[in-house]
Amino acid sequence: MAQTSSRADLRFAGQLLGAAVGDFARLLDEQFLRVGGSLDCVLGAYAADHGYAPPVLS
How many domains would you assign to the chain? Predict the structure, then answer.
């Protein structure tokens, strides 16, 4: 996981990627899905909407 990496560049890239995914999910939810749930719920609904089984999160 990027958060625990000893490399500062990987931690920074992980933060940027996390923010981008969060922004994408919020936009999807506001404009299309209207799930109103957590990031996992929104991404699961997006996967289901595209014919994929939502991921099983442990």
Answer: 1
Q: What is the value of pTM for the model shown?
A: 0.82
How confident is the model over 3-45, as pLDDT tens digits?
A: 899 999 999 999 999 999 999 999 999 999 999 999 999 999 9
Question: CA-CA distance, 50 to 42, in Å (whole number)?
Answer: 13
Decide if 28 is inside a domain.
Answer: yes
Break the chain down into helix, strand, coil percent, rounded to 5. Answer: 70, 0, 30
Where does the chain show beta strands of DSSP type E?
Answer: none
